[in-house]
Here is the input.
Amino acid sequence: MKIPVTCQDSTYSIPVRARDGDAGVDLAASAAVDIAPGERVLVSTGISVAIPDGYAGFVLPRSGLAVNHGVTVVNAPGLIDSGYRGELKVGLINLGAGPYAISEGDRIAQLVVMAVASPEFVVVEELDATSRGSGGFGSTGMRGHEE
Here is the structure.
């Protein structure tokens, strides 16, 4: 699948996979920004994409940035619908103890494009029974911590 990309400036790069077989492509910052501890910022990438119908883009954190510096995507995953044609921007939050500086060109997130279903929801009298039932958060227990 080929996805059309426009760049606001010739210095911006289109998303590429770091290695063959990688699910995501790196998104890079188009400008420098400093993020104070606890601060949320919207970081421009300088690119726009045309995701085809039947697909969506999911903006995910870069694990090294999150684990090593506490900087992650604030609304992970960020969703890019197929009809959106504006610039991709990434909402980041600094959960670390100190400020973090992003330079132009730094890889700040990953974009994964996946097929998505378009279900139709219908009202029914009751749902079918399953072994889990309505058990929610923590209902399956933690290994070695069952009560």
